Amino acid sequence: MGIATYGSCLARSFGLPSAATLTSRMADGCMLAVTGLRQDGQDTVTTLAFGRDDACLLALQLRGPIVHKVWMDGAELTNQTMEKGSVWFYDVGHAVTATITGPFHCLLFHIPRSAIAATCKALGLRQIHSLQRDEDNGSADAIIQSIGDCLLPQLHAEPTLSQPFVDHLFQALLNHLVVRHASGIESCTRPSNARGGLAAWQQRRAQELMREHLIEGIALAQMAEVCRLSTSAFSRGFRISTGVSPHEWLLQRRIDCALEMMRATALPLADIALRAGFTDQSHFTRSFGKRIGVSPGAWRRASGPHENAVPPPTRDRRQAARSEHRLQARDSRRTAALRVKSMAQSL
Description:
The chain is α+β, with helices and mostly antiparallel strands. Helix content is 47%, strand content 19%. 31% of the residues are buried.
């Protein structure tokens, strides 16, 4: 029997008397948890061995840089510097020991394998066994950071009031992890060179095109032409390679963009919706709620004001922006009219 990788057991492994913890129980009974660990001293902490738990552990660093070493079953696994905002995955089916030098603050998510399996089944994806990917360790993830920002104030909130919100956030985290971080492929479906999928260069080019046209969007036919495929073959191949349609993939990038703006600015949600490429605020709210589990307004209220937030534009600046948009629209209409006239003359 291993040492639980959440709550007071995990806190004691780090030499702390206790730690704030949130839990969420899925429909099948498996327990998810997030534990906040913090030390402000300069000492080097060597943990007791923990783990041998049928789960994965995700660490979101809220302070950095810090130096840490990790051993798994006695063998050194990592010896690196953790930056603020970085995300780390560990397979705690093994005995884990760590040393951390200096002050640290992190959120540790306990994710049972049974929860991963249940989420794969619910999303219609093939079963996977691990969320750990070497290329993900140490990278930043805007959605994980945003979910962590939402959960942080809930660690000390009244449980009966915040539990439905916490449950939504855990489910959103699970969906995101399974789709984007599972077993070395972005969507836990077949790899991109599987039969019927896109070649690596086709998938890379299609995703580059969608990022380049994040706001205005890009036609399927145009991407298919670049990839030298028919529209139907491209659409089918993209879904096989990534697990989602091109439209769904583009929507997720727009949500990532909106999350960054909500964290870094105080712009109204209607402005953020348009700047991220959504048709209007209603479209943004529906798409955001479907993927994150809460509305943009609820997410922003739970996250609190950002210390570096840029204030919304003044009335004069808003009026100037509207005037500029009207001029741009007028110029676009004139350009389109001239193009039609030129085509008619050429005929």
